[in-house]
Write a sequence for this structure.
């Protein structure tokens, strides 16, 4: 996480997810898969619900899904809107 704020404040992961609700995010998961979509919800285990999720496997677009649940234990990283 990049910290451009001179006060030294770095947001916690759950705070970042809260600030990303209803915004487009990108998620990298195990198995060389990436998803992007609108974050609809999350829980303390970092299970994420995406709306209008696009799936990419090995840099090839595999389609769009109206709703998707990603298990937190498969997530490698989450990129919030604007790289926050």
């Amino acid at each position: 996480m990049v910290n451009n704020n001179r006060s030294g404040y770095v947001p916690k992961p759950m705070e970042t997810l809260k600030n990303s609700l209803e915004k487009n995010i990108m998620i990298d998961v195990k198995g060389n898969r990436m998803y992007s979509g609108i974050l609809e919800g999350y829980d303390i285990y970092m299970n994420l619900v995406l709306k209008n999720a696009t799936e990419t496997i090995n840099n090839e677009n595999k389609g769009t899904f109206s709703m998707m649940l990603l298990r937190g234990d498969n997530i490698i990283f989450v990129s919030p809107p604007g790289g926050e």
Q: What stands out?
A: Helices lie at 13-20. The chain has a mean pLDDT of 90. Residues 23-83 form a domain with the SH3 type barrels. fold (CATH 2.30.30.100).
